[in-house]
Amino acid sequence: MAFADLTNDFVFRRIFATHPDILRGLLNDLLDRRGDQAIDTIEYLPSEQLPLVMGAKLSILDVRCKDHEGTMFVVEMQLIHHPGFINRVVYNACKAYVGQLKAGAWYDSLTNVVAISICDFELWPDKAQEAQGLPTVPMLSRWAVTESSSKTHTLQHVHYAFMELPKLPEHKPDTGALQWAWLFVHAPELTEIPADLPAPYRQALELANQAKFTQAELDAYEKVRDEIRQVLAISDARWAEGKAEGKAEGKAEGKAEGTAEGEIKGRRDTLLRLLVRAGIAITDNDRARIQTCRSATTLDLWIDSVFGAKAAADVLS
User: Interior CA angle at 305 toward 231 and 74, to 5°?
Assistant: First the structure.
């Protein structure tokens, strides 16, 4: 018995975008919703991109839903830590919040938004936090606005939750959010469903059983997996190259200048690999324009523009 990778775009959507009970279990665990606060029913909302049997595309919003009180939940799986990632999460959450308001409607008709990002990378590495004298951020972190003096937290209109999968402890957890993280990391290594695995974790794993995939679904899964591997390989190589070149140039021309050049190159390479993942074709002129750009601000703008773009002109405008 072989299980598919739950972080794969196709599999993630196969499980969570079509099975509300499983998604509800994930949300309750990640947000620690228990008792009266538990999410009992959800209604799916349209996502901006939701390809089910196509190649890997950039996922702006993987799954969107709302509960019976109208709270909107935006859930995404993110494999690559590109520049401006947190800014994009905040932007999309705020966009989802203000997007509820219809012309002529009162502001009190707006309901809360919760943005959940499952990340296959560390956003706040422990070593980096410790080096700055800051407390470490747990694997599952939840964020909301709190008044700095009184610690009052009544501005709860937009919440954020981040799960950093590389921070998963080595021991196998029994239930809760850690159990989901363990499945996201270790599902492909399993040869059978653990006997003590309760629902909805068991249901999620059953849907990842490749033996139950149709040939079309297997082809879609393999295509997405190959594209993800290619993008990640390019990402690792180019970031390493950019860092090395930055250091080399820093020795020859000054550390600050070399580091800046390395960061510019890293942005260029990030943009190019994101365009590949988004399936956006670029011409030789487009590539030359990217490779000769030396403005970090412009490159960051182009990187953010990839999300939702359909053509190179949408990005390099």
Answer: 80
- Parallel/antiparallel/unpaired status of strands 63-67 and 42-45: antiparallel
Q: For residue 63, give Cα distances in angstroms to 20, 130, 193, 262.
A: 11, 34, 25, 35
Q: Which region holds residue 262: left if phi is over 0, alpha if psi is between -120 and 50, else beta?
A: alpha
Condensed to tens digits (0 to 9), the pLDDT of residues 34-46 reads 998 899 999 998 7
- Is 0.85 surpassed by the pTM of this model? no
Could you give the CA distance from residue 74 to residue 245 in angstroms, rounded to a whole number? 38
Q: Which of 52, 34, 42 is nearest to 75 (CA)?
A: 42
Residue type (1 letter), 105: A
End-to-end, the C-alpha distance of the chain in Å comes to: 48
pLDDT on residue 58: 41
Per-residue pLDDT for 61 more than 70?
A: no
Q: Residue 4 in contact with residue 50, Cβ under 8 Å?
A: no
- Compute φ and ψ for 15, nearest 5 degrees: -85, -55
Residue 254 makes CB contacts below 8 A (sequence gap 6+) with: none
* Sequence-separated (6 or more) residues with CB below 8 Å from residue 295: none
Q: What would the pLDDT profile of 80-126 be if each residue is shown by its tens digit?
A: 777 788 988 999 899 999 998 888 889 999 999 999 999 988 999 99
Segments making up each domain of the chain, as ranges = 9-212, 218-315
Residue 59 vs residue 276, higher pLDDT: 276
Q: Which amino acid is at 218?
A: L
